[in-house]
Amino acid sequence: MDRTLVLVRHGQSEWNLRNLFTGWRDVNLTPKGVEEARDAGRKLKEAGLEFDMAFTSTLIRAYRTLDLMLEEMGQQDLTVIRDRALNERDYGELVGLNKDDAAAKFGINQVHTWRRSYAVAPPGGESLRDTLARALTYYVQNILPQVLSGKRVIVSAHGNSLRALIMVLENHDPDTIVERQLQTGAPLVYHLGADARVTEWHDLGGGDPSPH
């Protein structure tokens, strides 16, 4: 049985380019982000991958990335499910701030704690633990059953919401998952056994290794 799960962080967004905290702000892809998404689709096609269904967040940078990948693959008629559980981490009062400006406003150590700790949330926002709780619940209840039934599934989402899935797939703990970097527009291909554990996985590469 083919139990294939592909995870893709969206292509570069306009606020990635400007080094701003984005969170749930709905910003579009840059021209580079569009090309990253198309390149991801081409790589998936070259790898011989086809999908039975797709999941994405409700934010345009994620679902547009998915649309562009599927267009390159000739799979525009694929069933796509959008859900806010896969949205990026909510950065609260940090949203819209340049990361350097945030460090000047709140202090570099405090901003580092908000960005890199597992359980500490910025004012009015979510911690990584909060984000993982909602995304992982959604994965277990909605995505994983489809994969275990033999469907080939692709998920286009965000650095932090995808960390929830990767935490389980790659056996990370709270200390190591905060350091797991995801490139934009770089598909991660996982093959699962009947017990939901990964039997093999590989990174198709490319994209921008910026952390958030």
Automatic annotation (TrEMBL):
Substrate binds at residues 9-16, 22-23, 61, 88-91, 99, 115-116, 159-160. GO terms for molecular function: phosphoglycerate mutase activity. It catalyses: (2R)-2-phosphoglycerate = (2R)-3-phosphoglycerate. Keywords: Gluconeogenesis, Glycolysis, Isomerase. Gene3D superfamilies: Phosphoglycerate mutase-like. It comes from the Bacteria. Pathway: Carbohydrate degradation; glycolysis; pyruvate from D-glyceraldehyde 3-phosphate: step 3/5. The active site is at residues 10, 88. Its EC number is 5.4.2.11. The record marks 158 as: Transition state stabilizer. Pfam families: His_Phos_1. Belongs to the phosphoglycerate mutase family. BPG-dependent PGAM subfamily. Catalyzes the interconversion of 2-phosphoglycerate and 3-phosphoglycerate. Homodimer. This is 2,3-bisphosphoglycerate-dependent phosphoglycerate mutase. It comes from Terrihabitans rhizophilus.
